[in-house]
Amino acid sequence: MKKDDLEIPELTREQLGRGVRGKYHRRFTQGRNVVALRPDPRKAFPTSEDVNDALASYLAFAREANSLTSRPSGRAAKRHTV
Fold first, then answer.
1. pLDDT digit string (tens) for 42-66?
2. What residue ranges do the domains of the chain occupy?
3. What are the C-alpha distances in Å from 12 to residues 3, 17, 18, 57?
4. What is the reported pLDDT for 78?
C-alpha cells in the first residue's frame, strides 16, 4: 500500500454542501441513551419499556434494602455504641 493511498483528500466548502443548523437538536434534547444489551438479557427484555420497568424495580428494591440495613444516626446511635 502506498502512502498516497492512506491520505484523505481535502474537500472545499462547496464540496461539503450546505449544513443544517440544529439538525439533531430535538433528538439530543429528548435525552435518549442507547445501550447495547447482550443476547440473553435482550430475550428477557425485548422493549425499552421492559428494561425501564426492570431497572425501576431494581432501584426501588435497592433503596428499600438500603433503608432496612442502614445504621441508625443521632442520639440513638450513640446510646447503642459500646
1. 999 999 899 999 999 999 999 999 8
2. 37-82
3. 22, 9, 12, 53
4. 59
